[in-house]
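Methods: example folding runs. The two proteins below were folded one after another, and each record is reproduced exactly as written to the output file, sequence line first and C-alpha coordinate line second.
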Amino acid sequence: MNVYHYIADTNPNQANDLLRNYGFNRTNDLTMISKRLKHIVRENKVSALRDIADIHPDKKLFLSFQSEKKEEYLNITGRTPEISSENLDEKAKELVQDVKKEMSAFRADIEKEFNKRSSGKTGKSINKAVGNVNNNIGQVSQKEVLMMAVAFAIGYMLANK
Protein backbone atom coordinates (compact mmCIF):
# COMPACT_ATOMS: atom_id res chain seq x y z
CA MET A 1 0.00 0.00 0.00
CA ASN A 2 1.41 3.37 -0.99
CA VAL A 3 0.49 6.78 0.39
CA TYR A 4 -1.97 7.50 -2.43
CA HIS A 5 -3.89 4.29 -1.82
CA TYR A 6 -3.81 4.93 1.94
CA ILE A 7 -5.35 8.37 1.48
CA ALA A 8 -7.92 7.05 -1.02
CA ASP A 9 -8.85 4.23 1.35
CA THR A 10 -9.09 6.28 4.55
CA ASN A 11 -10.26 9.62 3.19
CA PRO A 12 -12.04 9.13 -0.16
CA ASN A 13 -14.40 12.14 0.11
CA GLN A 14 -11.65 14.69 0.66
CA ALA A 15 -9.50 12.98 -1.96
CA ASN A 16 -12.35 13.31 -4.48
CA ASP A 17 -12.80 16.97 -3.52
CA LEU A 18 -9.10 17.58 -4.07
CA LEU A 19 -9.14 15.77 -7.40
CA ARG A 20 -12.13 17.86 -8.47
CA ASN A 21 -9.91 20.97 -8.01
CA TYR A 22 -7.52 19.41 -10.51
CA GLY A 23 -10.27 18.74 -13.08
CA PHE A 24 -11.22 15.13 -12.31
CA ASN A 25 -14.77 13.84 -11.84
CA ARG A 26 -15.86 12.16 -8.62
CA THR A 27 -15.45 8.39 -8.47
CA ASN A 28 -16.01 5.67 -5.86
CA ASP A 29 -13.25 3.43 -7.22
CA LEU A 30 -10.41 3.61 -4.66
CA THR A 31 -7.83 2.38 -7.16
CA MET A 32 -8.81 5.14 -9.57
CA ILE A 33 -8.58 7.77 -6.80
CA SER A 34 -5.12 6.47 -5.92
CA LYS A 35 -3.98 6.61 -9.56
CA ARG A 36 -5.35 10.13 -9.96
CA LEU A 37 -3.59 11.33 -6.80
CA LYS A 38 -0.35 9.91 -8.15
CA HIS A 39 -1.01 11.58 -11.50
CA ILE A 40 -1.54 15.06 -10.03
CA VAL A 41 1.72 14.74 -8.08
CA ARG A 42 3.57 13.82 -11.27
CA GLU A 43 2.06 16.79 -13.09
CA ASN A 44 2.04 19.47 -10.38
CA LYS A 45 4.82 18.27 -8.06
CA VAL A 46 5.18 20.39 -4.88
CA SER A 47 1.79 22.12 -4.97
CA ALA A 48 0.00 18.77 -5.35
CA LEU A 49 2.07 17.24 -2.56
CA ARG A 50 1.09 20.12 -0.27
CA ASP A 51 -2.57 19.63 -1.16
CA ILE A 52 -2.31 15.89 -0.51
CA ALA A 53 -0.54 16.53 2.79
CA ASP A 54 -3.52 18.67 3.84
CA ILE A 55 -5.91 15.76 3.41
CA HIS A 56 -3.61 13.05 4.77
CA PRO A 57 -5.34 11.15 7.61
CA ASP A 58 -2.22 11.38 9.82
CA LYS A 59 -1.64 15.08 9.25
CA LYS A 60 -1.88 15.93 12.97
CA LEU A 61 0.75 13.33 13.79
CA PHE A 62 3.17 14.77 11.24
CA LEU A 63 2.58 18.31 12.43
CA SER A 64 3.26 17.30 16.03
CA PHE A 65 6.83 16.42 15.03
CA GLN A 66 7.27 19.66 13.13
CA SER A 67 6.49 21.84 16.15
CA GLU A 68 9.70 20.78 17.93
CA LYS A 69 12.54 23.28 17.87
CA LYS A 70 14.86 22.73 14.95
CA GLU A 71 17.77 24.34 16.78
CA GLU A 72 18.03 21.44 19.20
CA TYR A 73 19.52 19.23 16.50
CA LEU A 74 22.59 19.41 14.34
CA ASN A 75 21.85 19.68 10.68
CA ILE A 76 23.69 18.18 7.76
CA THR A 77 26.30 20.97 7.67
CA GLY A 78 27.21 20.32 11.31
CA ARG A 79 26.17 23.80 12.34
CA THR A 80 25.07 24.15 15.90
CA PRO A 81 22.43 26.60 17.21
CA GLU A 82 25.04 29.06 18.46
CA ILE A 83 26.22 29.57 14.87
CA SER A 84 23.24 31.27 13.31
CA SER A 85 23.10 32.72 9.82
CA GLU A 86 23.57 36.20 11.32
CA ASN A 87 27.00 35.45 12.76
CA LEU A 88 28.06 32.86 10.17
CA ASP A 89 30.23 35.33 8.25
CA GLU A 90 31.93 36.33 11.49
CA LYS A 91 32.65 32.71 12.39
CA ALA A 92 33.96 32.02 8.88
CA LYS A 93 36.35 34.98 9.11
CA GLU A 94 37.58 33.75 12.49
CA LEU A 95 38.16 30.29 11.03
CA VAL A 96 40.12 31.70 8.09
CA GLN A 97 42.29 33.73 10.46
CA ASP A 98 42.94 30.63 12.59
CA VAL A 99 43.95 28.65 9.51
CA LYS A 100 46.29 31.43 8.38
CA LYS A 101 47.95 31.51 11.82
CA GLU A 102 48.43 27.76 11.77
CA MET A 103 49.87 27.87 8.25
CA SER A 104 52.32 30.61 9.27
CA ALA A 105 53.44 28.64 12.31
CA PHE A 106 53.78 25.48 10.21
CA ARG A 107 55.81 27.35 7.58
CA ALA A 108 58.10 28.78 10.25
CA ASP A 109 58.66 25.31 11.75
CA ILE A 110 59.50 23.86 8.35
CA GLU A 111 61.94 26.66 7.61
CA LYS A 112 63.69 26.21 10.96
CA GLU A 113 64.00 22.47 10.50
CA PHE A 114 65.40 22.73 6.99
CA ASN A 115 67.75 25.56 7.94
CA LYS A 116 69.10 23.35 10.73
CA ARG A 117 69.65 20.46 8.34
CA SER A 118 70.96 22.46 5.42
CA SER A 119 74.68 22.14 4.87
CA GLY A 120 76.68 21.50 1.74
CA LYS A 121 75.43 20.91 -1.78
CA THR A 122 72.40 18.81 -0.76
CA GLY A 123 71.38 21.39 1.83
CA LYS A 124 71.44 24.18 -0.79
CA SER A 125 69.20 22.22 -3.16
CA ILE A 126 66.85 21.46 -0.27
CA ASN A 127 66.77 25.16 0.67
CA LYS A 128 65.96 26.06 -2.92
CA ALA A 129 63.09 23.53 -2.98
CA VAL A 130 61.83 24.72 0.41
CA GLY A 131 61.94 28.32 -0.81
CA ASN A 132 59.76 27.38 -3.78
CA VAL A 133 57.33 25.54 -1.52
CA ASN A 134 57.25 28.40 0.99
CA ASN A 135 56.47 30.88 -1.76
CA ASN A 136 53.41 28.83 -2.68
CA ILE A 137 52.15 28.06 0.86
CA GLY A 138 49.17 30.17 1.74
CA GLN A 139 48.43 31.04 -1.86
CA VAL A 140 45.16 29.61 -3.03
CA SER A 141 44.27 29.44 -6.69
CA GLN A 142 41.07 30.91 -8.04
CA LYS A 143 39.76 27.40 -8.75
CA GLU A 144 40.27 26.36 -5.11
CA VAL A 145 38.51 29.51 -3.86
CA LEU A 146 35.58 28.84 -6.16
CA MET A 147 35.35 25.22 -4.99
CA MET A 148 35.33 26.34 -1.36
CA ALA A 149 32.66 28.95 -2.14
CA VAL A 150 30.49 26.30 -3.83
CA ALA A 151 30.94 23.95 -0.86
CA PHE A 152 29.98 26.70 1.59
CA ALA A 153 26.99 27.70 -0.55
CA ILE A 154 25.73 24.11 -0.73
CA GLY A 155 26.17 23.72 3.01
CA TYR A 156 24.34 26.99 3.63
CA MET A 157 21.44 25.96 1.36
CA LEU A 158 21.15 22.58 3.05
CA ALA A 159 21.22 24.21 6.45
CA ASN A 160 18.33 26.50 5.55
CA LYS A 161 16.05 23.70 4.34
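Second run, written to the same file directly after the first:
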Amino acid sequence: MNKNNFMPIVEKICSLPPSALDRTEEDGKELLNLCRTLMDMVNIPSNAEIYEVPLMENNQVAIYFFLENDDEKEYCLNAGHWLNDTISMELEAYGKETNEYDIEMYTAFESLPLDYFGNHENSEKNETTMKRMRYYIDYVDKKTNMEHSTSFETKIECWAFIRKNEKDIHLTKKPYTSDFLDWFFSEGIA
Protein backbone atom coordinates (compact mmCIF):
# COMPACT_ATOMS: atom_id res chain seq x y z
CA MET A 1 0.00 0.00 0.00
CA ASN A 2 1.36 3.40 -0.99
CA LYS A 3 2.01 5.47 2.13
CA ASN A 4 1.04 8.65 0.33
CA ASN A 5 -2.48 7.38 -0.31
CA PHE A 6 -3.77 7.29 3.25
CA MET A 7 -1.56 9.65 5.28
CA PRO A 8 -3.28 12.84 4.01
CA ILE A 9 -6.59 11.38 5.23
CA VAL A 10 -5.06 10.48 8.61
CA GLU A 11 -3.64 14.01 8.90
CA LYS A 12 -7.04 15.51 8.07
CA ILE A 13 -8.75 13.34 10.73
CA CYS A 14 -6.18 14.40 13.30
CA SER A 15 -6.75 18.08 12.46
CA LEU A 16 -10.44 17.87 13.40
CA PRO A 17 -11.48 19.30 16.78
CA PRO A 18 -12.37 16.92 19.65
CA SER A 19 -16.04 17.87 19.17
CA ALA A 20 -15.96 15.78 15.96
CA LEU A 21 -16.21 12.70 18.16
CA ASP A 22 -19.74 13.78 19.13
CA ARG A 23 -20.77 13.07 15.51
CA THR A 24 -23.55 15.65 15.68
CA GLU A 25 -21.86 18.66 14.09
CA GLU A 26 -20.45 19.05 10.58
CA ASP A 27 -17.06 17.99 11.94
CA GLY A 28 -18.61 14.72 13.09
CA LYS A 29 -19.99 14.00 9.63
CA GLU A 30 -16.62 14.83 8.12
CA LEU A 31 -14.92 12.50 10.63
CA LEU A 32 -17.21 9.61 9.66
CA ASN A 33 -16.70 10.29 5.94
CA LEU A 34 -12.91 10.38 6.31
CA CYS A 35 -12.94 7.18 8.40
CA ARG A 36 -15.13 5.53 5.77
CA THR A 37 -12.61 6.58 3.09
CA LEU A 38 -9.82 4.83 5.01
CA MET A 39 -12.02 1.76 5.43
CA ASP A 40 -12.82 1.73 1.71
CA MET A 41 -9.10 1.65 0.91
CA VAL A 42 -8.87 -1.84 2.43
CA ASN A 43 -12.27 -3.08 1.19
CA ILE A 44 -14.05 -3.07 4.53
CA PRO A 45 -17.71 -3.77 3.62
CA SER A 46 -20.00 -0.77 3.36
CA ASN A 47 -22.30 -2.20 6.06
CA ALA A 48 -19.53 -1.85 8.66
CA GLU A 49 -20.60 0.46 11.47
CA ILE A 50 -18.07 2.65 13.21
CA TYR A 51 -18.35 2.04 16.92
CA GLU A 52 -15.68 4.39 18.22
CA VAL A 53 -12.66 6.45 17.13
CA PRO A 54 -10.62 6.42 20.35
CA LEU A 55 -7.39 7.69 18.78
CA MET A 56 -7.12 10.62 16.39
CA GLU A 57 -4.00 12.57 17.23
CA ASN A 58 -0.29 12.78 16.42
CA ASN A 59 -1.01 11.44 12.91
CA GLN A 60 -2.41 8.22 14.38
CA VAL A 61 -5.98 6.98 13.95
CA ALA A 62 -7.78 3.93 15.37
CA ILE A 63 -11.25 3.10 14.08
CA TYR A 64 -13.28 0.48 15.98
CA PHE A 65 -16.10 -1.07 13.97
CA PHE A 66 -18.32 -4.12 13.63
CA LEU A 67 -20.30 -5.77 10.85
CA GLU A 68 -24.02 -6.22 11.40
CA ASN A 69 -24.08 -9.87 10.36
CA ASP A 70 -20.78 -10.85 11.99
CA ASP A 71 -21.13 -11.47 15.71
CA GLU A 72 -17.88 -13.44 15.73
CA LYS A 73 -15.46 -10.50 15.72
CA GLU A 74 -15.19 -6.81 16.46
CA TYR A 75 -12.54 -5.02 14.39
CA CYS A 76 -10.07 -2.13 14.52
CA LEU A 77 -8.38 -0.33 11.63
CA ASN A 78 -5.22 1.52 12.66
CA ALA A 79 -3.53 3.99 10.33
CA GLY A 80 -0.73 6.44 10.84
CA HIS A 81 2.85 7.34 11.59
CA TRP A 82 3.77 5.28 14.64
CA LEU A 83 6.27 5.80 17.46
CA ASN A 84 8.66 3.26 15.90
CA ASP A 85 8.85 5.65 12.89
CA THR A 86 6.84 3.39 10.56
CA ILE A 87 3.89 4.49 8.48
CA SER A 88 1.28 1.79 8.04
CA MET A 89 -2.30 0.61 8.14
CA GLU A 90 -3.16 -2.45 10.21
CA LEU A 91 -6.38 -4.40 10.55
CA GLU A 92 -7.06 -6.28 13.77
CA ALA A 93 -9.80 -8.22 15.49
CA TYR A 94 -9.93 -7.01 19.08
CA GLY A 95 -12.79 -9.02 20.54
CA LYS A 96 -16.01 -10.86 19.96
CA GLU A 97 -19.58 -10.28 20.96
CA THR A 98 -20.50 -12.67 23.74
CA ASN A 99 -24.15 -11.74 24.26
CA GLU A 100 -26.35 -8.69 23.97
CA TYR A 101 -23.87 -5.93 23.20
CA ASP A 102 -21.15 -7.27 25.50
CA ILE A 103 -17.72 -7.57 23.94
CA GLU A 104 -15.14 -10.01 25.24
CA MET A 105 -11.78 -8.40 24.55
CA TYR A 106 -9.01 -10.66 23.28
CA THR A 107 -5.90 -10.74 25.48
CA ALA A 108 -3.91 -10.04 22.30
CA PHE A 109 -5.41 -8.46 19.20
CA GLU A 110 -5.60 -10.81 16.22
CA SER A 111 -3.68 -9.31 13.31
CA LEU A 112 -5.54 -9.63 10.00
CA PRO A 113 -4.28 -8.99 6.47
CA LEU A 114 -5.43 -5.69 4.97
CA ASP A 115 -7.19 -7.63 2.20
CA TYR A 116 -9.05 -9.74 4.77
CA PHE A 117 -12.48 -8.53 3.67
CA GLY A 118 -11.61 -8.57 -0.02
CA ASN A 119 -10.54 -12.20 0.19
CA HIS A 120 -13.07 -13.30 2.77
CA GLU A 121 -15.27 -16.06 1.34
CA ASN A 122 -18.31 -14.76 -0.51
CA SER A 123 -17.73 -11.19 0.70
CA GLU A 124 -18.71 -9.68 -2.66
CA LYS A 125 -21.73 -11.95 -2.95
CA ASN A 126 -22.83 -11.07 0.58
CA GLU A 127 -22.25 -7.37 -0.09
CA THR A 128 -24.53 -7.27 -3.10
CA THR A 129 -27.29 -9.54 -1.83
CA MET A 130 -27.34 -8.55 1.83
CA LYS A 131 -30.34 -6.56 2.90
CA ARG A 132 -30.15 -4.04 5.66
CA MET A 133 -30.91 -5.84 8.91
CA ARG A 134 -33.02 -4.10 11.53
CA TYR A 135 -32.99 -4.62 15.29
CA TYR A 136 -36.17 -4.93 17.34
CA ILE A 137 -37.04 -4.82 21.02
CA ASP A 138 -40.28 -5.49 22.83
CA TYR A 139 -40.73 -3.75 26.15
CA VAL A 140 -43.23 -2.55 28.74
CA ASP A 141 -43.23 1.09 29.72
CA LYS A 142 -43.10 0.99 33.54
CA LYS A 143 -44.96 4.31 33.88
CA THR A 144 -47.95 3.47 31.67
CA ASN A 145 -47.72 -0.35 31.83
CA MET A 146 -48.19 -0.43 28.02
CA GLU A 147 -46.37 -2.83 25.70
CA HIS A 148 -44.32 -1.46 22.81
CA SER A 149 -42.24 -2.82 19.96
CA THR A 150 -39.58 -0.60 18.45
CA SER A 151 -37.10 -1.09 15.62
CA PHE A 152 -33.67 0.41 15.02
CA GLU A 153 -31.39 0.62 12.00
CA THR A 154 -28.25 -0.30 13.94
CA LYS A 155 -27.22 -2.38 16.90
CA ILE A 156 -25.69 0.75 18.49
CA GLU A 157 -28.99 2.68 18.30
CA CYS A 158 -30.81 -0.26 19.85
CA TRP A 159 -28.25 -0.54 22.65
CA ALA A 160 -28.30 3.23 23.26
CA PHE A 161 -32.11 3.24 23.54
CA ILE A 162 -32.03 0.40 26.07
CA ARG A 163 -29.29 2.06 28.14
CA LYS A 164 -30.97 5.47 28.04
CA ASN A 165 -34.36 4.12 29.12
CA GLU A 166 -33.35 1.16 31.29
CA LYS A 167 -35.01 2.62 34.40
CA ASP A 168 -38.29 3.30 32.61
CA ILE A 169 -38.73 0.13 30.58
CA HIS A 170 -38.77 -3.63 31.09
CA LEU A 171 -37.66 -5.77 28.14
CA THR A 172 -40.13 -8.58 27.58
CA LYS A 173 -37.68 -10.53 25.40
CA LYS A 174 -34.12 -10.22 24.12
CA PRO A 175 -33.51 -7.92 21.14
CA TYR A 176 -34.01 -9.71 17.84
CA THR A 177 -33.29 -9.02 14.19
CA SER A 178 -35.22 -8.81 10.95
CA ASP A 179 -33.47 -12.05 9.89
CA PHE A 180 -35.15 -13.79 12.81
CA LEU A 181 -38.54 -12.37 11.77
CA ASP A 182 -38.01 -13.52 8.16
CA TRP A 183 -37.25 -17.05 9.39
CA PHE A 184 -40.12 -16.98 11.88
CA PHE A 185 -42.76 -16.03 9.30
CA SER A 186 -41.33 -18.20 6.50
CA GLU A 187 -41.73 -21.27 8.71
CA GLY A 188 -45.38 -20.46 9.26
CA ILE A 189 -44.88 -20.33 13.01
CA ALA A 190 -46.80 -17.11 13.50
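Comment on the second run: The CA atoms of residues 39 and 77 lie 7 Å apart.
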